[in-house]
Amino acid sequence: MQSTSRVKAALRRARRRFTKKPPAAPAKAAVVARPATLSKPAAADVEKARALPGDRLLVRPVFVLSSIRSGSTLLRVMLNTHSEIHAPHELHLRGIGVRLKSNYATRAMAEIGLDNDQLRYLLWDRMLHRELVRHSKHVLVNKTPSDAFIWRQIVACWPDARFIYLLRHPAATTDSWHRARKEWTRDEAAEDVLPYMEAVEEARSERGGLTVKYEDVTVDPAREMQRVCEFIGVDYEPAMIDYGQGDHGKFRAGLGDWSARIKSGKVQPVEHIPTADETPAALIDISKKWGYIS
Fold first, then answer.
1. What is the full per-residue pLDDT of the chain (294 aa) written as tens digits?
2. Which CATH code, of 3.40.50.300, 3.20.20.70, 3.40.50.1220, 3.40.50.970, is assigned to 60-91+142-289?
3. CB of 126 closer than 8 Å to CB of 27
4. What one-character DSSP code corresponds to residue 283?
5. Strand 162-167 relative to strand 85-86: parallel, antiparallel, unpaired?
6. What residues does each domain of the chain span?
C-alpha cells in the first residue's frame, strides 16, 4: 500500500511539473532593456537611420497650417480638385503614433536604428504616400488644424516639407467657433483658438512658406489659387474654383467643415469682417501681427 501511495504521489508531482505555466522572466532581465542602458547606441543608430535612402516615399509634401474655423476645408477641396494634387480630409497626424510594447521590441528596434519617433515618421510617410498613390496624384497637400502644434515634428519627418499658412481674422474665427460651442462665452472661445494661431505664427516666423488669407480667397479665388499653384509648382486649373464637381469624400465632423456653406460647392463671400472694437482682448496682438487691425 505504501508503495502504491508513493507512486501516486510521484505521478501527481510529474503532472504538476508538465502542466504548470513556465515561470515569469526574472525581474533582473528587465534591467538589461532599460532605456538608459540603450540611450547612447540607440541615439547614434537613429541618427544614421535618418539619412537612409528610401526612408521617405513622399517628396516635398505640402502642409496647410491654420487655426480651426479658418477656411482650411475650402482650401483643401479647391486644391483637391486639381488634376495633380491630392488633399485628403483631416488625418490627424498628431494622434497617430507607434508604441513599442516591450523592452525586447525597444532593443530590437534600437539595433536597427529606430525609436518611437522614427517609427511614427515611417508610418506617417507610408500612410500619406498610400493616399497619394491610391488617388493617382503627384502632389500631396495635407491639412488638419492640429498640425500647427506638430510642425517641428513634420519638419523632422520631411525636411523638404513646404508650408502654406492660412490666416483668417482672429475675431471671425472666434465667432465661428463660438457658434459651434454655444455653452461657452465668446472670451472662452477666443482663448481656445488662440493657441492654434500662436502655433501657426511661430511656424510662419521660423520656417517660412506661403501666407494666404481666407478673406482674399473668398474675394478673388482665382487669383489666390494661382498664387498657391505657383508655390506648389503646378499649373493653375480654373476648375479648382468650381470644387463642387469633384469627389472630396464625406463632409462630417472630425474630418473638416461639414456646414451647408462647404456642401454648396461654391466659394461664398465673407459676411462680415470684425472691427478692432469687436476683437476680443486676448486676440489683439495676433490680429495686429496678421494685419487685420492696426
1. 444 554 455 445 444 443 444 444 444 333 333 333 333 334 444 454 464 888 999 999 999 999 999 999 999 999 999 999 999 988 999 999 999 999 999 999 999 999 999 999 999 999 999 999 999 999 999 999 999 999 999 999 999 999 999 999 999 999 998 988 899 999 999 999 999 999 999 999 999 999 999 999 999 999 999 999 999 999 999 999 987 776 666 656 665 665 667 666 678 888 889 999 999 999 999 999 999 999
2. 3.40.50.300
3. no
4. G
5. unpaired
6. 60-91+142-289
